[in-house]
Amino acid sequence: MSALTARKRSRLEDRGQMSFLEDLDATIDRLLEEAGCPDEVVWTDEDISKLKKAMLLDALKQLRQVRLAKSTREEILGWIAQPLKSEGHADPFSFQDCCIASDLVAEEMQPHLLRMFVTQH
After folding, report:
1. Handedness of CA 51, 55, 56, 61 (dihedral sign)
2. CA dihedral (39, 44, 48, 53) positive or negative
3. Is 41 helix (H, G, I), strand (E, B) or coil?
4. pLDDT tens digits, the chain, 121 residues: what are they?
5. Distance between CA atoms of 31 and 80, rounded to whole angstroms?
6. 84 dihedral zone (left: phi>0; alpha: psi -120 to 50; beta)
7. CB–CB of 93/58 below 8 Å?
8. 75 in the Ramachandran plot: left (φ > 0), alpha (ψ -120 to 50) or beta?
9. Which residues 6+ apart lie within 8 Å of 119 measured at CB?
């Protein structure tokens, strides 16, 4: 069972909060099979690189929004502000790793972005 543990799901079903989900996992599996989806998705290095670039771009686009929720802004800025690691040791999907995938230098980008967006709000 994925995000919902069997125990939690059982408690919710007992309270009638999930009675409509009799066998959600089996239903999802059947629908995916009918749609011709593979059992396992294979991510190439190029796919992962594209995802990292998209994450960085999305974060920067969101920071430019005037009506961005304060909690979202703080989460993005916290992600950007994470301490940078020595070359070749960036944490997966960290700001630094996403910069590397985007051919950007995190050491140059980080202070500029923080100065720009922290002083803005």
Report:
1. positive
2. negative
3. coil
4. 445 566 655 665 555 444 455 566 677 777 778 888 777 778 899 999 999 999 999 999 999 998 989 999 999 999 999 999 987 789 999 999 999 999 999 999 999 999 998 876 5
5. 39
6. beta
7. no
8. alpha
9. none
Residue count of the chain: 121
Sign of CA dihedral 34, 40, 45, 48: positive
Q: Kindly report the number of other CB atoms within 10 A of residue 62's CB atom.
A: 14
Place of tokens 């002083």: 119
Structure tokens at 77: 């800025």
Contact 73, 88 (CB under 8 A): no
Q: Where are the domains of the chain?
A: 1-42, 45-118
No. of helices (H) and no. of strands (E), the chain: 6, 0
- Sequence-ordered list of residues with C-beta below 8 angstroms from that of 109, at least 6 positions apart, any chain: 99
